[in-house]
Amino acid sequence: MIVTVTANPSTDRTVELPGRLERGEVHRAVRVVDQPGGKGINVSRVIRAAGLPTLAVLPSRADDPFIDRLRGVALPHQAVPVDGSVRTNITIAEPDGTTTKINDTGTVVSTTTAAELLAAIVARAESADWLALCGSLPPGLPDGWYAELLTATSELRCRVAVDTSGAPLAAVVDAAPDLLKPNAEELAELTGADPTAMEREAADGDPGGAVRASRALSDRTGGSVLTTLGGAGALLTTPAGVWFASAPRVAVRSTVGAGDASLAGLLIASLRGADEEGLLRSAVAHGSAAAALPGTTPPTPDLVDETGIAVTRLS
C-alpha cells in the first residue's frame, strides 16, 4: 500500500492553445480539461493505473465537486472535512510543450482540521509500505508540518517520501525522510547550486553539478534523493551510490505532473522489489510517458516504455 498526502489539492484545469501564448491577445482554446489534482493525488493516480493499492488522503468537504472528480477516476481516497472549497489551478499549454501555470493559494486549514488530518494520516500510515507527502501547504499549516508528520510516523514501519518546495522543503530536510524528490530548482534551493547549469550539463551527458548537489543532500538526510532534471533525465542518489539515466525523446504535451509520475514510478518499482537501476529506470519511464500526455493525465502501463533507458552508475 502506498498512502499519499495532498494537503493542498486542486482541480487542475488545462487549457490547450493552437499556437503560442501572446500576452494581451484573445485566444481560443483547442481543448479544456478539468482533472482532480495536487501532487499526491497525481502520484496515487499513476499507482492506481499500474494496478497497485493506494489511498489519497486530503482535506475537502464531502459535498465538494472535487470529491465527485475523484470518484469519477475511481481513486480510493479519504477526505478530512475542511471549510471552503478545493482550489482550481490553471495550466496553459502551448503546442511546443511550453506550460504556464496559475495556481490558487488554497483553502485555509484550521488548527482543528490540521490535527484531524494528521491523525488520519498516521492511522493510514500504520499499514502502508510508503507514505508520500506531496505538494505545497495550504494557508493555516506551518512550514514545518511535513517535518511534524515525519516525527509522528517515525516509529512506524512505512518509509516516507517527500516532494515539496520552498520553506516546507527546507524544513523537512533535517527530519531525515527516506526519500526526497527535488527537481533542479528545488535541489538548488537547498544546496546553492545553479539549476540551469545542472540541467544543461546533464543534457550534455555530464551531470557532475547535480551529482555533487544531490550527494550533499543525501549525506545530510541519510536517505535517498531522486532528482528530476527535466528532459535531461534523472539522478538517484543513495548512501550506496549515484545513478543517472537520460530521458527518452518524446513529443511533450504537458510537463505538469511529470515529476509526480516519476516519483510514482520509483514507488511502484520499489513495491516490486527493484534495485537502484530498476527504481531509476521506472521513474524516468513514467515521467517521460506523463510528459507526452495532456494535463495531469496519468500514464497507463501500456504507455510506459523502459526499453532503451540506459542507467549508469556514477559512484
Automatic annotation (TrEMBL):
Keywords: ATP-binding, Kinase, Nucleotide-binding, Transferase
SUPFAM superfamilies named in the record: Ribokinase-like (SSF53613)
Domain of life, source organism: Bacteria
A Pfam entry, by short name: PfkB
Domain Carbohydrate kinase PfkB per the UniProt entry, residue ranges: 19-302
UniProt keyword Nucleotide-binding present: yes
Assigned GO CC terms: cytosol
GO molecular function (one): phosphofructokinase activity
Region (Disordered): 190-216
Stretches of the chain forming a coiled coil according to its record: none
Family in the record: Belongs to the carbohydrate kinase PfkB family.
Name recorded for this polypeptide: 1-phosphofructokinase
Native species: Gordonia neofelifaecis NRRL B-59395
